[in-house]
Amino acid sequence: MELEDKVILITGASSGIGKAVALALSHKHNHIVITARRKELLADVAESIQKNGSEALAVAGDALDEEQAARVVREAADRFGRIDIALLNIGAGPSLNTATALPLDIKQNMRINYDSMINFFCPMVRQMKTQDGGGVIANTNSLAGFQGMPTQGQYSAAKAACRIFLDTARIELKPFNIRILTLCPGFVVTERNKQRGIPKSLTMTLGQAAGYILKALKNETREYLFPPLLRNIVTIGKALPQPVREKILAKMATSD
Ligand SMILES: NC(=O)c1ccc[n+]([C@@H]2O[C@H](COP(=O)([O-])OP(=O)(O)OC[C@H]3O[C@@H](n4cnc5c(N)ncnc54)[C@H](OP(=O)(O)O)[C@@H]3O)[C@@H](O)[C@H]2O)c1
User: Fold this and answer.
1) What is the pLDDT of residue 255?
2) Residue with the nearest Cα to atom 41 of ligand 1?
3) Is 219 in the pocket of ligand 1 (CB under 6 A)?
4) How far is it, in rounded angstroms, from Cα 18 to Cα 36?
5) Radius of gyration of the chain from Cα atoms?
6) Residue 92 Cα to ligand 1 middle (Å)
7) Is 3.10.620.30 the CATH classification of the domain at 7-254?
8) Euclidean distance between CA atoms 190 and 242, whole angstroms
9) First to last CA, the chain
10) How confident is the model at residue 197, as a pLDDT?
């Protein structure tokens, strides 16, 4: 889909990848709906979108609240008449170790990654089913969703859950011309990743990550793993015998 003059909703757009994608899209005369909890940051992003020549609608809300998520979709559709693309981007992966983690922290991570996506997914499907031409629903997933990673077990599990759910949706929503994309970045340079000491050669800037996401949205790539170096590492990793894979991951964890 050409990314010009489209109505695009982005969740988690007050910072990080969501904000970078919103700004990258704002140069192409789009109508961009942004949502997150922090109102002031959203207002700043909306102002930049408008300065860059696109229309912005900022709707603050907590994505863990089903009603609030539905309201965001409703307000976007009321304002612009349709939603061509939804990037369901909210998520987080704080470090937790399964030897010490509490049930609440593990389950909370499923809520922020999986429940937040579902709360937007259902009203979005309802909306797109009514539209001529359907639409695109994309999820910012993660390369971590292909393998249980040390200190990221709960996050890997949540992202894998999103990916598998969307695999089903892709089949079931085809008759409605709703296309489903799972976008899987590797490490992006954020404050948190800087503190984790991830080698620079393995990270992308926010601008690079946004560039990959725009490419996948335009090409409607069903499942897109990026950047290429980490995509190859994940692909090779998946092909290794499990004990070998576990040994490598354990070594990586102890050298942290
Ligand atoms: N950074 C990476 O290296 C990396 C790698 C692979 C995948 N990802 C994925 O990329 C996505 C974006 O991550 P990021 O690194 O850009 O993180 P980020 O800067 O922390 O962005 C997260 C966004 O989600 C919003 N959010 C969090 N909880 C929310 C809630 N309950 N309701 C509404 N909005 C909420 C935050 O806004 P408010 O706090 O204002 O609500 C923020 O806008 C996530 O799904 C993450 O798993 C990141």
Assistant:
1) 57
2) 37
3) no
4) 10
5) 18
6) 5
7) no
8) 31
9) 41
10) 77
Please give the structure tokens belonging to residue 181.
């994309």
How far is ligand 1, taken at its centre, from the CA of residue 243, in Å? Answer: 32
How far apart are the CA of 242 and the centre of ligand 1, in A? Answer: 31
Closest ligand 1 atom to 20 CA: 16
**Residue 112 in contact with ligand 1 by CB distance below 6 A:** yes
Interval 22-66: pLDDT, tens? 999 999 999 999 999 999 999 999 999 999 999 999 999 999 999
Residue 177 has a CB neighbour count (10 Å cut-off) of: 14
Using one digit for the tens of pLDDT, what is the confidence trace for 158-199?
Answer: 999 999 999 999 999 999 999 999 999 999 997 777 777 788
Closest ligand 1 atom to Cα of 155: 47
Tell whether ligand 1 has an atom less than 6 A from the beta carbon of residue 108: no
Q: Is the CB of 111 under 6 A from ligand 1?
A: no
The string of DSSP letters for 44-93 reads HHHHHHHHTT-EEEE----TTSHHHHHHHHHHHHHHHS--SEEEE-----
Structure tokens at 37: 């909890």
Q: Are 17 and 213 in contact (CB under 8 A)?
A: yes
